[in-house]
Write a structure and sequence with these properties.
Helix 3 (about 165-175) crosses helix 9. The protein is an alpha/beta fold. The two termini are about 25 Å apart. Strands 3, 4, 5, 8, 9, 16 and 17 form a seven-stranded mixed sheet that branches. It has helices at about 50-55, 105-110, 165-175, 195-205, 220-225, 235-240, 260-265, 290, 305-315, 330-340, 350-355; strands spanning about 10-20, 25-30, 40-50, 75-80, 95, 100, 120, 140-145, 150, 185-190, 210-215, 230-235, 245-250, 265-275, 295-300, 325, 345-350. The radius of gyration is 20 Å and the shape is globular. A hairpin with a 6-residue loop joins strand 1 and strand 2. It has two domains: about 10-165 and about 320-355, Medium-chain alcohol dehydrogenases, catalytic domain (Quinone Oxidoreductase, Chain A, domain 1), CATH 3.90.180.10; about 165-300, Rossmann fold (3-Layer(aba) Sandwich). One of its GO terms (molecular function) is cinnamyl-alcohol dehydrogenase activity. Its cofactor is Zn(2+). One of its GO terms (biological process) is lignin biosynthetic process. Belongs to the zinc-containing alcohol dehydrogenase family.
Length: about 350
């Protein structure tokens, strides 16, 4: 007999799931675990659609588990808390990002880097401690250990859910690699969901920002809408040559294979190129330009819980929110098709609270 996800746990849940690599989502009845003593249960109000959802839905990273309820930019309102929960109470606005668990004991966990824990439990497409699949935020209810729940600032709109992935993914490397100092000159490669957040945070830190893109038609929005200081077309050899040795660091948000050499040439000595996009194939890395200037190529993945809260508070203080298009749940498959074509400025957010209707 087929396993019943509806009766696996005590709490009835409803969302949209894909059953196979087609990636097509449709209504799905399942269940959530009972709220444990350290758990927070909340009603989902908004959930961002991340580019990584596309990869996972279609098994493009080779680790997809089905059925899959995506969504790791989840914002909602607390409906129940366990007896030992200290940080939250019923009625609080909260968020859950890319992870819902980690070992809490390893070297990374001990210094608030749960995002690098080898036993991290992803919000969806992973396994809970009891061995059952984790299901994400394209659903009506979530249950999570309070440690992996963040407080949503009062003056931040709840539909700014993409801060929980796109926000922290760009905030963390700017901070960690010291690219957050006023007067620095930072490059941002790609102007999508991640790129537009990188521009906003870098500007809020007081840096000068250059957007680097293959698409000339993004210049106006980069400068006028997002406040970038300058714009480089990466396919224009003259522009790229004129900008050589001018950048202190680069946040590279592009998730398809692209040439790295031109980016290395843009950086000053000791420049840092940080990859936050995730191309599915290896990129070519020429070493000579690294040697000639002691340059660094690095990677960064989301952030720990403490830093995620810090990022949200910073965003609230400086009024930094993602540029979003809020859509109803039934629109999700169309939204995913449009996302594949980069036809969104810059993030879709599902209005779960008002439009997720049980079929």
């Amino acid at each position: 007999m087929a396993k019943s996800f509806e009766n696996e746990h005590p709490i009835k849940a409803f969302g949209w799931a894909t059953r196979d690599t087609s990636g097509v989502l449709s209504p799905f009845n399942f269940s959530r675990r009972v709220t444990g003593e350290k758990d927070v249960q909340f009603k989902v109000m908004y959930c961002g659609i991340c580019h990584s959802d596309l990869h996972q839905l279609k098994n493009e990273w080779g680790n997809s588990k089905y059925p899959m309820v995506p969504g790791h930019e989840v914002v909602g309102v607390v409906t129940e808390v366990g007896s030992k929960v200290e940080k939250f109470k019923v009625g609080d606005k909260v968020g859950v990002g890319c992870m819902v668990g980690s070992c809490r004991k390893c070297e990374n966990c001990s210094v608030d880097l749960e995002n690098y824990c080898p036993r991290q439990i992803p919000t969806y497409n992973g396994y809970s401690l009891d061995g059952t699949l984790t299901f994400g935020g394209y659903s009506d209810v979530m249950v999570s250990d309070e440690h992996f729940v963040v407080r949503w600032p009062e003056n931040l709109s709840m539909d700014a859910a993409p801060l929980l992935c796109a926000g922290i993914t760009t905030y963390s490397p700017l901070k960690y690699f010291g690219l957050d100092k006023p007067g620095m000159h930072i490059g941002v490669v790609g102007l999508g969901g991640l790129g537009h957040m990188a521009v906003k945070f870098a500007k809020a830190f007081g840096t000068k920002v250059t957007v680097i893109s293959t698409s000339a038609n993004k210049k106006k929005e980069a400068i006028e809408r997002l406040g970038a200081d300058s714009f480089l077309i990466s396919r224009d050899p003259e522009q790229m040559k004129a900008a050589m040795n001018t950048l202190d660091g680069i946040i590279d948000t592009v998730s398809v294979v692209h040439p790295i050499l031109p980016l290395l040439m843009l950086m000053k000595s000791h420049g840092k190129l940080v990859m936050v996009g995730a191309p599915e194939k290896p990129v070519e890395l020429p070493v000579f330009p690294l040697l000639m200037g002691r340059k660094l190529v690095a990677g960064s993945c989301i952030g720990g819980m403490k830093e995620t809260q810090e990022m949200l508070d910073f965003a609230a203080k400086h009024n930094i929110t993602p540029d979003i298009e809020v859509v109803p749940m039934e629109y999700v498959n169309t939204a995913l098709e449009r996302l594949l074509k980069s036809d969104v400025k810059y993030r879709f957010v599902l209005d779960i609270g008002n439009t997720l209707n049980k079929k």
